Amino acid sequence: MTFLLPILLASLAACGLTTALAAVLLVAERYLVNYGPCRIDVNAGDRELEVAGGETLLASLKGAGVFLPSACGGRGTCAYCKVKVLEGGGPVAPTELPLLTEEEVAANVRISCQVKVRNDLRIEIPEQLLSVRQYRGVVERIRDLTHDIKELRIRLTEPERMDFVAGQYVQLEAPAYGDNPEPVYRAYSMSSVPSEDGVVELIIRLVPGGICTTWVFTILQEDDEVTFSGPYGDFRLSESDRAMVWIAGGSGMAPFWSMVRHMKEKGIARPVRYFFGAVRRKDLFFVDELRALEAELEWFTYVPALSGETDHDPWAGERGLITEVVDRHVENGAELEAYLCGSPGMIDAAAKVLHAKGITEERTYYDKFG
Amino acid sequence: MIAQAAAETSPGTMLVLVLLSAALTDNILLTRFLGMCPFLSISRQLRSAFGMGLAVIFVTTGTCVLNYLLYVYLLRPLAAYGVPAESLKLILFIVVIAGFVQLMEMLIERISMKLYFSLGIFLPLITVNCAILGASLFMVNHVASKGFGLVQVLLYGFGTGLGWFVAIMLMAGIRHRLKNARIPPALEGAGITLIITGIMAMAFVIFQGMIKI
Questions:
Q1: Which of A113, A218, B58, B84 is found 20 to 30 A from A342 (Cα to Cα)?
Q2: Number of folded domains that form chain A
Q3: Chain A CB within 8 Å of residue B121 CB
Q4: Local structure of A122: helix, strand or coil
């Protein structure tokens, strides 16, 4: 038994000392580092975070679900966690100076792991870092756009708003139902305009046998609650001012329906030719709305094309496969950017035509349905 | 001459020698290469190096004293009961250092932002700095072999920190001049700093052991 005594004593000494130190630190933390609750305003009101003061900005943001890149674990060496602190950041600390250029200091850029939250802050971080999260909402309206395409209008309940860029998508959760024992997630581009507060609209085409689309078409009712995550994706307007060719079919309408209205709102007047391919006239939707936009916006042209209408039909628009129509209309591809959204078959065929016209791969943006 | 002085060892000269040997001839950074990480990264700017150096002085002094008390009043008595004090000290010293550093950071931040920005902000960076732990561990050796008391330990801790301070200030000064020098691209940054450290170390190593306490 005597050999147990040293072990016991050693454990007691180690645990006792550690506990004592921890107690001292806890007391100190309670009274020394208590800065009370602080508000962090992100991107001029985009998000309001309420955090407990005293931690570093990096840690506080992480706690509030905003994840900044950081490789060194907050030791102030990697400089990945740069953030613009517009108000309340205090003077630039000496640990930050070696990692910041003079221009950055002048522009209020800070190393967020070296900035303590001691009071309310106003900060600015790149939009895409306001990362993906889970949303809940209530279906406000389900409307038929065509015989097999529905539009879902969801009012967000928790959180009550979502920031996204026109062209991004969400993952909608179809709960377990019928023979389907587990929830599944399917991606749908948002067709609503980012500026429309608290609302997300999706355009969903019935896929025969599809778990999620069948759920949307047969079970989901107005006023039902839905869950989704997002926003995802980097299908979005480029920063250039080149003229664009948009090509879509079916529910591939969604990102473009969002983009064109977003461009109109923001006064982005890049020339756009929007080719929309369908089989018959009954497969077209938003025709009146797009025609109205075309009449109103001189930079916007809408070119619907039908591949399956009979010659007797009084359709005055373009006829033929979308690839043929694009082939007839697009010239000088070297000056253009292309955006494609739809089924993989259609996208690949259209991309081939566009590349032959001189639109480079780097200037071709895809949103393929998986 | 110094050896002579040491041989006489009046209590006063003994203290001066402890300080001098810790700071210069047994410089923890240049003769033992401890505490290199902050030395390499913070020596880019004189001002930061100054703050970092002060922080190290402060922490080595404080933790050497605390760990001395821990060693003499807890670990050594326990050793009589068969507790492996020598192994245990490693863990416990680290814990004490980490706690001390955290506590001091909070305290300084609350007391004065000016002091915090010049000194306190560097504290978290040296929580687990090996120079700090090294100072405490060497201190224990001195306690065992040379019978250091509390005052000597205080001076030893201070001297060790001072030595680190001197080293990083020298390096920051050199690197300040280096900004205008043409360095082969492959050696820029840490590379040239390590080479310079090596050359500086040679100068210090020569004097190692010259002062025998």
A1: A218
A2: 3
A3: yes
A4: strand
Confirm if B53 and B131 have CB atoms less than 8 A apart: no
d(CA A49, CA A61): 8
Query: Mean pLDDT across the stretch A132-139?
Result: 86
CB B168 within 8 A of CB B41: no
Last residue of a domain, one of A182, A208, A232: A232
How many Å apart are CA A364 and CA A361, to the nearest integer?
5
Max Cα–Cα distance, chain B, nearest Å: 62
Of the partner residues B44, B81, B106, the one whose CB lies closest to the CB of residue A29: B106
Among A296-300, A344-348, B8-12, the range of highest mean pLDDT: A296-300
Q: Domain range for residue A178?
A: 133-232
Query: Among candidates A342, A350, A192, A367, which has minimal Cα distance to A252?
Result: A342
Residue A286 or residue B25, greater confidence: A286
Chain segment B60-100, per-residue pLDDT in tens? 999 999 999 999 998 888 888 888 888 888 889 999 999 99
Instruction: Say if B112 is an interface residue toward chain A (CB within 8 Å).
Output: no
* Same domain assignment for residues A361 and A267: yes
- pTM as predicted: 0.52
Distances in Å between the Cα of B119 and the Cα atoms of A41, A300, B213 are 30, 61, 32
| Domain's final residue, options A213, A232, A251 | A232
Residue numbers of the domain that contains B64:
27-206
Q: Do B99 and A25 touch (CB under 8 A)?
A: yes
Whose structure tokens read 């895409």? Answer: A128
Mean pLDDT, chain B, rounded, equals 86
Eight-class DSSP state of A320:
S
- C-alpha angle B16/B202/B197, rounded to 5°? 100
Q: What is the pLDDT of residue A131?
A: 60
- Give the closest of A3, A18, A91 to B95, CB-based: A18
Nearest to B41 among A10, A22, A77 (CB): A77
Measured CA to CA, the distance from residue A331 to residue A123 in angstroms comes to 45
> What's chain A's length in residues?
370
Cα–Cα distance measured from residue A179 to residue A164, given in angstroms and rounded to the nearest whole number: 34
Neighbouring-strand partners of residue A138: A155, A225
Q: When comparing pLDDT for A353 and A91, which is higher?
A: A353
Least confident of A196-210, A238-252, A311-325: A311-325
Same domain, A330 and A250: yes
Same domain membership, residue A263 and residue A293:
yes
Contacts of B121 in chain A (CB under 8 A): 93-95, 114
Q: Are strands A184-189 and A169-174 parallel, antiparallel or unpaired?
A: antiparallel
Query: Which pLDDT belongs to residue B199?
Result: 93
Q: What is A182-236 written as a DSSP string?
A: S-EEEEEEB-S-TTSTTEEEEEEE--TT-HHHHIIIII--TT-EEEEEEEE---S
Q: How far is CA A105 from CA A91, A101, A197, B141, in A?
A: 10, 6, 34, 47
Q: Which residues contact B102 (CB under 8 A, 6 or more apart)?
A: A25, A28, B123, B124, B127
